[in-house]
Amino acid sequence: MSDAPVPRPSPCVKRCRLTPEGTYCEGCGRTLDEIGRWARMDESEREAIWQRLAHEGKAEPTQA
User: Fold this and answer.
1) What is the pLDDT of residues 14-33, one digit of tens each?
2) Which PANTHER family does this UniProt record tie to the protein (predicted)?
3) pLDDT at residue 61 above 60?
4) Cα–Cα–Cα angle for 16, 19, 24, rounded to 5 degrees
5) More confident residue, 46 or 1
6) Partners of 18 in the beta sheet?
7) pTM of the predicted protein model
8) DSSP string, 1-64
């Protein structure tokens, strides 16, 4: 049995649509850069994004 931590899931909620400015996804609240880099991010980067999303009210309490 592995003691490796389970990676944070993507915050994607399958409602992908950019803001009018093209800055953020209206579904999950991530930037295009965050979406594109998610698979290559380490856990500390992912956690920082989840914390920001929670602070902005974009993440469900069970996710963050």
Assistant:
1) 999 999 999 999 999 999 99
2) DUF1289 DOMAIN-CONTAINING PROTEIN
3) no
4) 70
5) 46
6) 25
7) 0.80
8) ---PPPPPPP---S---B-TTSSBBTTT--BHHHHHHGGG--HHHHHHHHHHHHHTT-S-TTT-
Please give the single-letter amino acid code of residue 39: A
Distance of CA 37 to the CA centre of its chain: 10
Contact 11, 28 (CB under 8 A): yes
Contact 57, 50 (CB under 8 A): no
What residue type is 46 in one-letter code?
Answer: R
Spell out the residues 6+ positions from residue 40 whose beta carbon is closer than 8 angstroms to its own. none
Q: Tell me, what's the pLDDT at 1?
A: 58
> CA 4 to CA 1: how far, in whole Å?
9
